[in-house]
Each structure stands twice: as C-alpha cells, then as structure tokens.
Amino acid sequence: MYQKILVPIDLAHAEKLEKAIQTAVDLASHYKAEICFLSVGSNTPSQVAHTPKEFEQKLSAFAKEQSEKSGVVAKACAHITHDPSVDLSKALVAKADDLEADLIVMATHVPGIADHIFTSHGGYVASHSDLSVMLVR
Asked: CB–CB of 125/87 below 8 Å?
C-alpha cells in the first residue's frame, strides 16, 4: 500500500518527534516501505548547522541512525530555502510530491486559539496535499 513515507524533521527538536518517528517506522515495517526524513533549512547559520552542507550531513547522519536503530530503509532529504519559517508548509507539500511519497507522517500539537486564526504546519499540509497525511500528537 505505501512505498515511501515522508517524515518532516526539525533537527533542533528531534527528541520531541519520537512518537511520529516511531509511527512512521511501524508503518514502514508493516508495508516494507522506505522512510524519507525531510528537513527544511536555510543558507544562514542556525542552531543546527552553520552551512547547508553541514545541515545535509547532520540530516543524513540522523537518517542513518534511525535506519540502524529500527531496521527500516531511511533516507534523508534536505531542502534549503531562503526563510524556512515562512516557506516550511509549502515546501513540505511540494517536496512530498517531488519525492513521490505515498504518505506523510507528521508530528503536531494540540490546537490552540492561534490555530483557529493561523493554520499550523500540520493543518496546512493536511489541507493542501493530495497525499494521505497522518498527524501524530
């Protein structure tokens, strides 16, 4: 049913994404699917990496670690954009199509008052993607 599962990752908060990662791993194991960890970064230094190349290396190391830990095939896809905070939601939808993913498994939070005015990233992706989207709280 699923061949490629896309999991958006924020390397600065990877420890908070364990439930979504484990959900994706369980699905990938069941369907013998590949996981693609997608992270959106910028050309400017951040708390994660100083350069886009370092950002890609850290994401690749993360994917390799997850693959070894879980036994599923996991790859990394770094997407560099001018302003990740503005471009994130649209980049996730566009890259999911580019990567030919079947499913997006994404961490989210319990909606608050602000989410009734501004869409969360998960809400945007679920509303604007043609793919199946699983939001994990």
From this structure: no
- Measured CA to CA, the distance from residue 108 to residue 134 in angstroms comes to 10
DSSP three-state, residue 111: coil
Evaluated on CA atoms 115, 123, 78, 74, the torsion sign reads positive
Residue 113 and residue 45: Cα distance in Å, rounded? Answer: 32
Q: What is the pTM of this model?
A: 0.91
Element at 134 (helix H, strand E): strand 132-136
The two structure tokens encoding residue 125: 């992706």
Tell me the residue range of the domain where 64 lies: 4-136
Domain count, the chain: 1
Mean pLDDT score of the chain = 92
